[in-house]
Amino acid sequence: MQSQVRVVIVGGGIVGTSILYWLAKLGWTDTLLLERRNLTSGSTWHAAGNTTYFGPYAQMTRLFAGSIRTYLQAERDSGESIGFHQTGSLRVATTKREREQFHEFEAGYQSLGIPYHVVDNDVISALHPCINTDGLFGAAHTPTDGHVDPSSTTHALAKAARNLGASVEVQCPVHQLSKDGDQWLVQTENGTIRAQHVVMAASFWTRELLQPLGLNIPLYATQHHEVITESVPQIAALDHEVPAYRDSYVSCSMRQEQDGFLVGVYETEPVFWSLDGIPKDFKEELFAPETDRLMPHLEKLMVRVPAFAEAGIKVINNGPMCWTPDGLPMLGPINTQHPGLWLASGFNVGIGTGGGSAEFLAHWMVNGSPLFDLPIVHANRFGNNVTTEQAVESINACYRMGYKLPESIRVG
Ligand SMILES: Cc1cc2nc3c(=O)[nH]c(=O)nc-3n(C[C@H](O)[C@H](O)[C@H](O)COP(=O)(O)OP(=O)(O)OC[C@H]3O[C@@H](n4cnc5c(N)ncnc54)[C@H](O)[C@@H]3O)c2cc1C
To answer: Within this chain, do residues 49 and 105 fall inside the same structural domain, yes or no?
Structure first.
């Protein structure tokens, strides 16, 4: 392992490997990614892989679009499949107001060159015959997004970065960060590394790794479920893969997984995990499913998608998901007192936004400014004094929003 590099990246999930890849694409290959266990050992291995283009903030949409573009580019560069399924997505309108809001997004998508249409119920039925459209007001349709395989994508990014000269060290936990003049000292299980820049892509672990520096980064983990069904005859009989479906009333997302469904649920009352610090012996295990909390949502889903009611449940995964108080990631320098320390943590849709966020951050590091400004994700926006109670209250409100849109849409 090198003892001196230009950049150390801490964390080998989709975000850390995307940053390693983008830095290498921009010419910075004197870089070393350090991973505590194996690539994807955090939240990435159990993610559903959804990479939609739909989001309430136009500028965030650039991060979503940049992600699919990044992953496909890494696939070409590495020769490794990322398992992209271009199914498109339907965000159904459950009220007239929601449909109006969908129309308000049209100009934003047009300016970004992303196909986006507000469609009627007959189009929903043609694309996704399993959806009961009674009471719906159409949907927002983004035909060119879909889902990737998060694990294959992470490995493709790492391989493509390595091919360009970047390095990866797994089974190498970082224990501590300190300063020696203008250099960072990164103390690891396998020795100390000097670096000009350190990028923290360690998700909720970033909080405790930066605490000894006097930094109070409001990153916490909720428990998040996904439900995977057995084969569904109605799906198996189709000659096309159905689009992903998202519904603010049911507070669920659903996509096709083989011939069945994969469902993600945003419950009304999220449950947090290890608010006082991540257990030292945590590896990459899942939590026991808590189906009682899911049932009110799954019952609504059975009405909206009757075929789901008939499907056998194959597996329920319940894994940790990182949150910031406003639900958006933290990207960029933390503050002027810690030059060379960059944050890329706090992703709850890290597959959807990781690749584009890495492009955004890598340009910032290499060129001194990001590709475009996006203050809503700046790492310093919370200051240093958010208490755990305040963060939990705020995250509760975000999680509960699920797929509801904010009333006033901020564009940019
Ligand atoms: C059930 C479920 C389904 C999901 N589905 C989706 C989805 O469909 N689409 C989507 O966009 N998102 C989804 N997510 C969220 C997604 O998993 C995360 O947003 C994403 O994986 C975060 O990536 P990351 O690289 O920031 O973090 P992680 O994948 O957690 O990576 C952080 C890495 O840092 C490493 N690390 C920690 N401490 C240290 C240390 N001291 N030294 C070295 N390394 C360290 C960890 O081992 C880990 O590998 C889902 C989450 C859950 C729980």
So the answer is: no
Residues 6+ apart with CB under 8 A from 107: none
Backbone φ, ψ for residue 21 (5° rounding): -65, -45
Q: Is residue 397 part of a domain?
A: no
User: From ligand 1's centre to the CA of 46, what distance in Å?
Assistant: 8
Number of domains the chain is built from: 2
User: Cα(first)–Cα(last) distance of the chain, in Å?
Assistant: 42
pLDDT at 408: 52
Reported as a single tens digit per residue, the pLDDT across 224-237 is 999 999 999 999 99
> Ligand 1, from 152, 193, 203, 377: best to mutate by most atoms within 8 Å of Cβ?
203
Nearest CA to ligand 1 atom 2: 47
Each residue's pLDDT tens digit, 372-383: 989 999 999 999
At which residue do the structure tokens 């520096």 appear?
213
User: Which residue positions in the chain have pLDDT lower than 70?
Assistant: 407-412
Q: In this structure, is residue 411 part of a structural domain?
A: no
- Residue 132 belongs to domain with CATH number: 3.30.9.10
- Residue list, ligand 1 pocket, CB within 6 Å: 10-16, 34-37, 41-44, 46-50, 173-174, 201-203, 205, 209, 224, 226, 264, 317, 319, 321, 347-352, 354
Cβ-contact 364, 74 below 8 angstroms: no
212 and 126 together in one domain: no
